Amino acid sequence: MLKKLEELKNELGQLRVAKVTGGAQSKLAKIKVVRKSIARVLTVYNQTQKSKLREVYAGAKFLPTDLRVKKTRAIRRRLTDEQKSMLTKKAQKTKTN
Questions:
Q1: Residue 34: how many CB atoms within 10 A of its CB?
Q2: Is the whole model's pTM more than 0.90, yes or no?
């Protein structure tokens, strides 16, 4: 995958040189295609890297921040269900009596 990425980047460099030197129209149109191909390769590469990391940290107590669920800031700071159901000492006494 990295080999393919390197080839695409080299090709893009050659196409950019051709653009400056006044190359054929077909080469100029190919720049966009090559850029999109590079993006596709990088996307697949990054997804596989992230999935491998998720497997490594599967049973860990803490996750790196980029592997945690995104959600929203408010939801992340919200009390958990366990914390919501907890009672103070005074509330426990009044409930038992």
A1: 19
A2: no
